[in-house]
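Dear Dr. L.,

I hope this message finds you well. Following up on our conversation about the binding site, I have prepared a predicted three-dimensional model of the protein together with 3'-phosphate-adenosine-5'-diphosphate. For your records, I am including the exact sequence and ligand specification that went into the calculation, followed by the structure tokens. Please feel free to forward this to your student if that is useful.
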Amino acid sequence: METSKTPLNTEEDLQELLLTLPSEKNLDGNNSLYLYQGAWIPVSFNLRGVDSFQRHFVAQDTDIIVASMPKSGTTWLKALAFSVAKRHIYGAGESPLLTTSPHELVPFFETDLYSKDQLPDLEQLPPPRIFGCHSHYGNLPESIRDSKCKVVYICRNPLDQIVSFFQFAHKFKVDDGVSLLSLDECYESICRGAYGQGPFWDNVLGYWKASSERPDKVLFLKFEDLKEDIVFNLKKLAEFLGVPFTDEEEKEGVVEEIARLCSFDNLRNLEVNKNGVRPLSGAPNSAFFRKGEVGDWVNYLSPSMAENFLDIIEEKLTGSGLTFRN
Ligand code: PAP
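The resulting structure of the complex is given below.
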């Protein structure tokens, strides 16, 4: 991973860099999407945060990184990883998830941690530290790739992912006088992969390849598989994190308890997720819980749009062995 030559210490450094980067209209209608190190990053996502994260984060062997393309099940996986990894501290009945958003408990590097403060003090956090991340695998700080920390990646079929992304942009639109683009208007950019943290194929393939090369380091999960069999996938996650469920835990129903705690209906109906707001971005917590279904894309994309987009994805993923259920 190559960081920008000049550290982005100030707003001026950032503006200078932006002048040199290819840019596109984001879903919010603003010219705020920039191609940086091969990834399309909305400037609102904070490029300075991305830069500081790459320069300064030092991974510990016990860290857990929850990585994803946005709108692929990040919130869900954050809740699951937190519950599995911290279950010896909090039982399901006393989980901090009952009163705190998964995004507070598992903060994103690029926005929550490194955007305001370039050197946040993360040393004090009790192990295992759990962080969220939307960066491409190749853009992660070397210490994440070189340490023994664990990376869990979740992906989702690209049609539902883009629809979820689009719906989120609509729900969270700030009134800045600029109109949102319609799905038709941004379809051509979508097909080129030019939307937040895209191209989709580069984001997923980086982690997919890493998970095949280093299965002890990177666990690759799919939203659709979790929907189909959450208990099986929770066991897989716990095993991967080095904290498998014991026979006794299984008999006591701990796995099912975590699945229930982190289920869409349970999390969505908690006071904190109904009425809370993300502190930095101002996004309502409720915007992270919309339908949580597989196949909702049929309500938004025409058959020809879907087919064309899937053809592009299929071509980009050729030879990788990665496929999706829509
Ligand atoms: P993020 O990357 O911005 O954090 P992320 O959590 O990945 O967002 O995506 C939100 C999607 O996950 C929403 O999908 P939808 O728009 O198709 O409905 C949201 O509903 C879904 N989601 C959130 N929590 C859960 C959950 N516990 N179970 C299943 N789906 C969930």
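In brief: The longest helix spans residues 158-171.

With kind regards,
A. P.
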